[in-house]
Amino acid sequence: MVAVTAGDAEIVRRSRYEPECFAALFDRHYPVIHGYAARRLGRGLADDVAAETFLIAFDRRERYDVSRDDARPWLYGIASNLIARHHRAEVRQYRALARTGTSGTAEGHADAVAGRIDAQAARGPLAAALGGLARGDRDVLLLVAWAQLSLQEAAAALGIPAGTARSRLHRARKKIRAVLGETDPTTLGDDT
Question: How far is residue 163's CA from residue 137's CA, in Å, rounded to a whole number?
């Protein structure tokens, strides 16, 4: 069994010869990948997307670049591609959220704590704005805002140049700000 303190790259490398080692990567990252998929698609599809993400990752572990110790961008990239297959469901969820102002998914403790009145008021318009973004713009924005990847990690996850990710993020934030009256709840920092 692989040590709990081993880095992601070491886990993937060892899993090539000891497949059971991959379970450590699954245990380490499944909750965040599942949470990301649930926020994008709802709980119903999140189980399938998260499970399929790790199946694909396991099948492709031979091609993983072990010079990258953090496997999160790789896993988020796989999940984003799977979510793209469910694009219609994601847009429907945003439209429903925009109409009702409530989420169809169960909120976690952190969401409940952060659910201040001003956030509740912005929820419907934010969902409408997210539903109106181009898929590529939305993917970069949500990887940065929800998955808390850096811009460079989001670019790597999506297999695009950092400059393209930067312009997509800027465009997405500009559209979100326009809908929300120059307020952007997805901003964790600046666009760099």
Answer: 13
Residues 154, 19: Cα–Cα separation, whole Å? 27
CB of 21 within 8 A of CB of 11?
yes
DSSP 8-state symbol, 147: S
Q: Which candidate, 149, 183, 154, places its Cα nearest to that of 166?
A: 154
Q: Which two tokens stand for residue 52?
A: 């399929």
The CATH code belonging to domain 7-85 is: 1.10.1740.10
Q: What is the pLDDT along the chain (192 residues), one digit of tens a residue?
A: 555 678 999 999 999 999 999 999 999 999 999 999 998 888 888 999 999 999 999 999 999 999 999 999 999 999 999 988 876 666 777 777 777 655 544 444 444 444 444 455 566 777 888 888 999 999 999 999 989 999 999 999 999 999 999 999 999 999 888 888 766 555 544 444
Fold type of domain 87-192: Arc Repressor Mutant, subunit A (1.10.10)
**DSSP result, 73-120:** HHHHHHHHHHHHHTHHHHHHHHHHHHHHSS-SSPPPHHHHHH--HHHH
How far is the C-alpha of 131 from the C-alpha of 94, rounded, in Å?
Answer: 5
Q: What is the pTM of this model?
A: 0.71
